[in-house]
Amino acid sequence: MNPSAGSSQPEVTYLNHETTVGSWLLTRDHKRIGVMFLVLVILALLLGGVFAMVLRIELLTPGPTIISAMTYNRMFTLHGVTMVWLFMIPAIPSAFGNFVLPIMLGAKDVAFPRLNLASVYIYVAGAALTLFGMLWSGADTGWTFYTPYSTTSPTAVTPILMGVFVIGFSTIITGLNFITTVHTLRAPGMHWSRIPLFVWALYGTSVIQVVATPVLGMVLLLVFFERVLGVGIFDPSRGGDPVLFQHMFWFYSHPAVYIMVLPAMGVITEVVCAFSRKNIFGYKMIAVSTFGIAFVGFFSWGHHMFVSGQSTFGSGFFGVLSMLVAIFTAIKIFNWVATMYGGSIDLRVPLLYVLGFIFLLIFGGMTGVAVATTSLDVHWHDTYFIVAHFHYIMVGAVLMAFLAALHYWWPKMFGRVYPERWSFLSAITIIFGFIVTFLPQFLLGNLGMPRRYYQYPAEMQWLHVLSTAGASLLAFGFGLIAIYLLWSLRYGPESTPNPWGSRGYEWHSGSPPAPHNFTQAPRFEREVHDYTVPEAPRVY
């Protein structure tokens, strides 16, 4: 579609001028929907963090500390389910993507505002069903729901399975909405070569969401049928194959890593440009690498199954493809560093989280190449090395980018400025705390410490104590963030329209934006993040 020819904007009833509960619950404004998702995913992060702290306290001693072995099994399952399905997958796309994507494109709203509101309620329904299962008796299968145990476990696996199944529809709707919005609602002058890289990242993520999530839904539904109806799809005693579950589950769940990480990379690109005062180095290569990661991610699920009995050729093939992802990731890292090189660096809190992101991504990525090597992975498989690796890549990278986005777009979303010194203290605490939490776990895994174990040899205790100390620092840092951000909502100074002096397209609107985002139709005549001219973006 030629955006310069103009495109029809959706007819939307905006309720921004109302502050009643009903106006929020019935809104079709993408900004309010983004804020509602932000509140929901932060609550999920809080719940998942509480589960994590219980686990870390339990592991302070080699034997029983505060909970029983069965409670421990359920606790790490609930931690994984909450963090993966309720927080990390929807965190950046559903919260920040919903808020800024239409503004970046110069649109009034997303293509399907009613479906956008429906995605919130579907997420809430799925989360409620999942929480019901947690309160009923929990689950002890791990967040992966591996068969045959997940089909026979006496715990509340069924409602949790169905909760995750329902949440998948919210993910699919969001992906369809973003793809359609990018194709049809770009402002005049918004050519494909001017689309912000955060939007490109969301576009690539949306493709994965739409294509891969139905596979997850099918395999969860099959486990449900096996538990409820007794069909033998995965049960070997009835002619089923439990390895089939692994193939179907990881066909979705490996690309799901990039549903989490690709939007995070888009956030990093926006923040690097804004605080380096430079246009991005290698715009086309970053955009292409986004789709390279998305494409290769679909064909590398088998590296989770090196010990499942698959052929030597299959393991080698999946290992090589997994390493190929590192090349596309390196393209992004080199371009971010090249953008900062020679730039006018303004070390503000969002950029501090970017530096934490890059460190964790490089460190976790190198260990990812290692575990993609069959001979090494056989030793590390199901040890704490794997726990540390995916926390660096998935949790650490997503958290750093989530916090960078939260601090970067906070003035845009709420029109308030937070205290800089407190935010610096919390950022340093969180980055240091995360490293201290998971670096010892690499050492534990190399020593042969299996993951998910309730007890461990006494000589490993000092590493577990160090890991728990790091988790305590993390909790302290997040507590600081909650305090000063809530304070800023009430008492923080009002923000200027563009407090960072950024040239990103979203700063062409006010902070917070007008009900329709712009008071007049915007035209984006310059490249995104164009710092070759001295003037700031015009606020429409």
Automatic annotation (TrEMBL):
Keyword check for Metal-binding: yes
Subcellular location per the Swiss-Prot or TrEMBL entry: Membrane
Residues annotated as domain Cytochrome oxidase subunit I profile: 18-525
Membrane-crossing segments per the record: 33-55, 83-105, 117-136, 156-179, 200-225, 256-275, 282-301, 313-338, 350-372, 384-410, 422-442, 462-487
SUPFAM superfamilies in UniProt: Cytochrome c oxidase subunit I-like
Major subcellular location class: membrane
Organism: Archangium lansingense
Pfam families with a match to the protein in the record: COX1
Keywords assigned by UniProt, alphabetized: Electron transport, Heme, Iron, Membrane, Metal-binding, Respiratory chain, Transmembrane, Transmembrane helix, Transport
Name the record gives this protein: Cbb3-type cytochrome c oxidase subunit I
Family: Belongs to the heme-copper respiratory oxidase family.
